[in-house]
Amino acid sequence: MAILSMVIFICLLVYLQRLIYKKYWDRGLSLRLAFSAKEAWEGETLTLTEELTNAKPLPLPWVTAKFQLSRSLKFLAGESFKVSDDYYQHDLFRVNMYQRVTRKLPFVCGRRGYYRIKSMDVGSSDILASTKLVKRLQSTAELTVLPKLIPAPEIEILTQQIQGDVEVRRFTNPDPFQFRGIREYFPRDDFRHINFKASARTGSLMVNQYGETATQELIILLNLETYADWEREEVYEEAIRIAASVAGYFSGLGVAVGLRCTGKDIATDSPAMILPGSGARHFHGVLEQLARIDLSLEPEKMAPYLENLRQPEPVYLLISPHHGKDITQAYEKAREQGLSIRWILPALKETKLRLPEGIEITRWDVDPSDYVL
After folding, report:
1. What are the distances in angstroms from CA 50 to CA 3, 105, 114, 251?
2. How far apart are CA 28 and CA 23, in angstroms?
3. What are the Cα distances from residue 4, in Å, to 12, 98, 134, 177?
4. In what order do the strands lie in the sheet with 60-70?
């Protein structure tokens, strides 16, 4: 009789602890993921903080934390990661009552892009592991990785012809009596031209402009149409880097820069576009837009846009790995109509270009070793 009573008592305890855990295991249980910065450059190292909190008087013998994110973020300690098209992180915790456990996972921003946690789950069980408990959570963690910039000397050589088209009057020794206004500071500006009163008033560095003006706009036409099934993704990523670098270079010269791209924004599913503007903030907006382009989305066609160009005033720069018949004909027609347009064509070193004889392009060789995709 005593043994039977003991068995009944044990069964009752097992049932009660299972009931308690099933009802209360996720009360006060939270998992927070946070990137160490909201924005970074390609190649920069950041950390992802994983914070598990159990804010209740019920210990959890074990908790699994699972989440999924892009494999373009290269985690440095990947023992608990499974890699396919994405990273799948699986961590095991033991948390007592009213306890918080924090882990930091370092990673390298392998490529530009806009990243969010794709899924996040926590799981646990009762003390005897007799029942499995799972809950899906939401994460607000997000990270924008800006495209890497090509060194200024290389961009200066690449854009020599464009600089001849863009009319910029700049005095080597500015006349301090020819004051033309105040604008945001850009890294190329002379520190002697900083206006400290305006900087204090606006909260950001401002500089005086002396004897210089930009009489033209530069519109970057970034075409990300795929040219062939065998074309490597690095070529299109290089086209994006060139667009970012050209925008930065000419913004530093005070030129109003705009962007029209056939690639689509990952959040809006619409073609990327930035109206002409100048200054550091505008350039940062261009970088953010380029970071958000998703190459997996079907791009628009560039040829129809080139065929409808009518404004003679802006200088156009076409950056396009795609060099099929439709776009070469539209490009040549635009030049014949008197539009100021140039073409930079990124391609792998071993690629042989098939272009009409006499067409004016500037080839840019792409080195795949510069990329970790």
Report:
1. 47, 8, 20, 39
2. 12
3. 12, 37, 35, 104
4. 81-83, 86-95, 60-70, 119-125, 132-137
Whole-structure pTM value? 0.80
* Residue 214, C-beta contacts closer than 8 angstroms, at least 6 positions apart: 166, 167, 168, 253, 254, 255, 256, 278
The tokens 């576009």 sit on which residue? 273
Pairing relation of β-strands 362-366 and 341-348? parallel
> Which regions in the chain score pLDDT beneath 50?
168-177, 212-215
Two tokens at 354?
């098939």
**Strand, coil or helix: 239:** helix
CA 150/CA 244 separation, integer angstroms? 8
pLDDT for the residue 352: 84
Note the pLDDT of residue 167: 59
Which residue type does 56 have?
K
Nearest to 105 by CA among 135, 134, 65, 145: 65
Q: What is the pLDDT of residue 158?
A: 85
Q: Cα 193 to chain center, whole Å?
A: 32
Contact between 263 and 289 (Cβ < 8 Å) = no
Q: What is the pLDDT of residue 175?
A: 47
- 95 to 24, 102, 197: CA distances (angstroms): 14, 11, 54
List, for residues 42-87, the tens digit of each pLDDT value: 999 999 999 999 998 988 888 988 898 888 898 886 555 565 567 7
- Packed helices 280-291 and 233-252: angle between N→C axes, nearest 10 degrees: 170
List of long-range contacts for 126-134, beta carbons under 8 Å, 24+ apart: 126/17, 126/18, 126/20, 126/21, 126/22, 126/25, 127/17, 127/21, 127/61, 128/14, 128/17, 128/18, 129/61, 130/14, 130/18, 131/18, 131/21, 131/22, 133/21, 133/22, 133/25, 133/26
| Run of H or E residues at 277 | strand 271-277
Q: How far is CA 14 from CA 2, 58, 133, 232, in A?
A: 18, 16, 16, 59
Q: Among all chains, which residue has been given the structure tokens 């002409």? A: 276
d(CA 179, CA 343) in angstroms, rounded, equals 36
C-alpha 117/C-alpha 35 separation (Å) is 10
Closest listed residue to residue 305, CA positions, set 229, 184, 219 = 219
pLDDT number for residue 180: 59
